[in-house]
Automatic annotation (TrEMBL):
It holds the Pfam family Pyr_redox_dim. It comes from Halopiger xanaduensis (strain DSM 18323 / JCM 14033 / SH-6). Its EC number is 1.8.1.4. This is Dihydrolipoyl dehydrogenase. Residues 467-487 are annotated as: Disordered. SUPFAM superfamilies: FAD/NAD(P)-binding domain, FAD/NAD-linked reductases, dimerisation (C-terminal) domain. InterPro entries: FAD/NAD-bd_sf, FAD/NAD-binding_dom, FAD/NAD-linked_Rdtase_dimer_sf, Pyr_nuc-diS_OxRdtase, Pyr_nucl-diS_OxRdtase_dimer, Pyr_OxRdtase_I_AS. One of its GO terms (molecular function) is flavin adenine dinucleotide binding. Transmembrane segments: none annotated. Residues 4-320 form the FAD/NAD(P)-binding domain. Residues 351-459 form the Pyridine nucleotide-disulphide oxidoreductase dimerisation domain. The keyword Protein biosynthesis does not apply. The keyword Disulfide bond applies. Gene3D superfamilies: 3.30.390.30, FAD/NAD(P)-binding domain (3.50.50.60).
Amino acid sequence: MDEYDIVVIGGGSGSQVATAAADRGLEAAVIERGPLGGACITRGCVPSKALIHRADLADAVRRAGEFGIAADLQDVAYGEITDAIHDTVYEKAARQERALEESDSVALFRGEGRFVDEWTIAVKPTDDSGDTREVRGDAIVLAVGSRPMVPPIDGLEDVDFLTSDDALFLDEQPDELAIVGGGYIGAELGYFFGALGTDVSMIGRSERLIPGEDDDASAVVTDSLADYCDLYTGYEAAEVAQGDGGGSVTITAEPSDDDGEPVEIEADELLLATGRRPNTDTLALEETSVETDDKGYVETDARLETAAEGIWALGDIVGEQPFKHAADYEAEVVMANVLNDAGREVDYGAMPHAIFTEPQVASVGRTEGELEDEGREYESTTVPFDAAPLGLILGADDGFVKVLAAPDGEILGCHVVGPQASTLIQEVVVAMDSGDGTVDDVADPVHVHPALSEAIYTAFDDLSSKEFSSAPDWRDVAPSGRSSEAE
Ligand SMILES: Cc1cc2nc3c(=O)[nH]c(=O)nc-3n(C[C@H](O)[C@H](O)[C@H](O)COP(=O)(O)OP(=O)(O)OC[C@H]3O[C@@H](n4cnc5c(N)ncnc54)[C@H](O)[C@@H]3O)c2cc1C
């Protein structure tokens, strides 16, 4: 039996807790069955954004004519692109593995961990080499992440399909691709494949793609993705069948509200992007007093301690915010609580997220729909990106910044749609997380001219209590016809 001060199961964000413990002179262990770094590095954030960067380049070439530059998209070296991305992200995972192996105070166990009792985990080597080893920890951190959920669609057992785990590294670009699922992973991949020229059909249960976003944001993305994909929003995949000779797949999709006729969609490849499920079923948690909800997410208190004292959880298995930055934030909370007994509680009030479609979406705080459902009093303004001169220059005419604030100026939510939205949201996050979190915290500081952050500035300035304003407003020359809507 190997005994440690702290044992982390899952080498994604959780491994940082082990490293921090080792820096304190504690004996720590990480149990990981796959590549180090977790989903983000080899199956999620990084490779998907590397692909989307190629889609953005292809899109820029396609749009160049709008700006008086003649350019044609001549060829996409698809296999070379995916090979290059694969090599980069697996090199990063290998470096992380080497760093742990070379560390004197973090032990790396390669294999799948399962509890045999509350404090003991059996690690079965992934490649069946060697014997199962038992590891015991004084504190244990569960950080085993999530995997694609495969929905119960008739005929799926007889059909070849992809999930995001395999769709990122295809050797060849599919000519036709049907994507089931209109959430953020489906939308990002729909944009990627569509922008590179694949004939994409997307089937989404809701009337809009990315339905969890503010309605205005999801409406813009749905309209925009209709330029890259054939959209079947408001449909559910009911049945799938392999085509003759196994070369294609036919999907029968039925209207979600049972009102209307089914449609049949044919494609070379089928990609399921129908959500993710926590990997907690791999852990034999029934051997412990850790509790999960009916979907398998781990129940924790606000300090991220599970029902078993001394066993902590973080990341996708907590089910609060399924994003890498959220998992890293939760890892910091667990470090503070396990290593310093800090009693720190999670606060997701200023937790942002972004979706890397065209246009990008970034969001923090409440959506307008949520505020309405809560019956909360709020003020709102929506300012188009082309109110800022750089927004106009870039032709970001479907972009906007929407600010939701309480009558006393407290920022309740902000939704940004447009180029670099994922970066632009950050000043709003800083304002919400520190200081008073009011619209004045964003509207008061000087913003660089003529940067896109002026779109944020003008929107917050609209709701601010400032007596004098110098925020730019180019709506009067915006070619998009949005000016009258926004004013
Ligand atoms: C296609 C895609 C795109 C994404 N894009 C973004 C993005 O742009 N931005 C963003 O913030 N998030 C993104 N995400 C989400 C992000 O990847 C996850 O939220 C994040 O990786 C969660 O971290 P984690 O540590 O909880 O889990 P993971 O990173 O999944 O790490 C868990 C680890 O545990 C291991 N494991 C599981 N069970 C066991 C076991 N029993 N024993 C040993 N090891 C085990 C797994 O192999 C895995 O390595 C994306 C996800 C996908 C799929």
